[in-house]
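Field log, afternoon session.

UNIT: design team B
ACTIVITY: writing a sequence onto a fixed backbone
BACKBONE:
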């Protein structure tokens, strides 16, 4: 497994566009202090609930590889579920095992692998930062999301994966919120409106039929 991951990251470093791809980084000096928002609550209750798409337009299969613990897998599942609420049937992430095909009836897409990597020092953006994860499309085979699990520490792996899934959908970094390039313990807890707007623009989806986490929805549900 170690060799495979090494091979994967070597491959990654050879790919064009790698340096501008989706490294989610954190400062070696520590994370910003979370003051603005309470921790994650029940996912569905803080999202808008627009009518769903009649049919699934596209399924994006995800394979989970490497030494993610049970708790880690639950966090990945949470990230996937929240994205599926946001995407509202237009695009659907589906976790698949082995060579299992994507859900019948939907337009199949190439699989993406979510890999746990340990003990690897990847190239990082200049400055006193360390990469938590990176996502890179691979020619002809969906792509690769590498999560540096031994650097996650007390950070929320679910938030990291949620951010990276934004890159899987083709969204780049934003100024703040989920798609900010720097990990933030509170601002990356859900799929926010700016991120959904970026997905809608990228994939030409109707914004008013997608969902996003909304403080007002959350407080009304409490
Ligand atoms: Zn990123």
């Amino acid at each position: 497994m170690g060799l495979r991951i090494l091979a994967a990251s070597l491959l990654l470093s050879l790919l064009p566009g790698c340096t501008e791809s989706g490294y989610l980084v954190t400062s070696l000096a520590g994370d910003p202090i979370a003051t603005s928002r309470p921790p994650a609550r029940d996912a569905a209750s803080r999202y808008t609930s627009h009518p769903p798409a009649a049919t699934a337009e596209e399924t994006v299969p995800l394979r989970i590889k490497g030494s993610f613990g049970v708790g880690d897998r639950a966090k990945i599942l949470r990230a996937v579920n929240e994205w599926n609420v946001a995407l509202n049937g237009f695009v659907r992430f589906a976790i698949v095992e082995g060579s299992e095909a994507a859900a019948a009836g939907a337009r199949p897409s190439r699989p993406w692998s979510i890999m746990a990597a340990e003990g690897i020092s990847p190239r990082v953006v200049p400055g006193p930062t360390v990469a938590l994860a990176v996502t890179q499309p691979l020619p002809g085979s969906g792509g690769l999301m590498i999560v540096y699990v031994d650097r996650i520490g007390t950070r929320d792996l679910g938030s990291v994966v949620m951010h990276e899934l934004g890159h899987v959908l083709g969204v780049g970094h934003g100024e703040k919120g989920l798609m900010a390039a720097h990990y933030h313990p509170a601002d990356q807890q859900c799929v926010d409106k700016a991120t959904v707007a970026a997905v809608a623009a990228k994939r030409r989806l109707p914004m008013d039929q997608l969902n996003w986490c909304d403080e007002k929805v959350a407080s009304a549900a409490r």
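LOG NOTE: Strands lie at 24-27, 58-65, 91-95, 112-117, 129-137, 143-148.
NEXT ACTIVITY: expression trials, pending approval
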